[in-house]
């Protein structure tokens, strides 16, 4: 795992005033939140795989996909 806080960044943070540090922390938070919000799910492949499960018909598959889609869009 790469170091997130190398010596140079550590020294910069030590010299920051409160407002600058708060801005940096907010920027890191926003980057993490955006990364977490991106869903890397192939809906078509998911649908195909769920459809292969024995006992899952088209109507039930549609219900399942609607629930999944609802949760993906709500975040």
Please explain how this structure is put together.
The protein is mainly alpha-helical. It folds into two domains: 7-37; 43-74. It contains four helices and no strands. The longest helix has 20 residues, at 18-37. The radius of gyration is 21 Å and the shape is rod-shaped. The two termini are 27 Å apart.
Please outline what is shown here.
The chain is an all-alpha fold. The chain has helices at residues 7-15, 18-37, 43-51, 58-74.
Q: List low-confidence stretches.
A: none
Q: SSE order, as H and E?
A: HHHH
- Which whole number gives the mean pLDDT? 86
Describe the sheet with the most strands.
Answer: none
Strand content: under 5%
Q: Looking at the chains present, what oligomeric state does this protein adopt? A: single chain
Count, helices:
4
Distance between the termini: 27 Å
Tell me roughly what share of residues is in helical segments: over 70%
Shape: rod-shaped
Derived from helix and strand composition plus strand pairing, the structural class reads mainly alpha
The total tally of domains equals 2
What Rg, in angstroms, do the CA atoms define? 21 Å
Report the strand count: 0
């Amino acid at each position: 795992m790469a170091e997130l806080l190398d010596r140079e960044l550590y020294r910069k943070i030590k010299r920051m005033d409160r407002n600058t540090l708060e801005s940096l922390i907010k920027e890191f938070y926003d980057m993490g939140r955006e990364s977490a919000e991106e869903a890397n799910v192939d809906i078509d492949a998911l649908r195909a795989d769920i459809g292969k499960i024995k006992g899952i018909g088209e109507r039930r598959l549609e219900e399942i996909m609607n629930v999944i889609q609802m949760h993906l869009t709500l975040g």
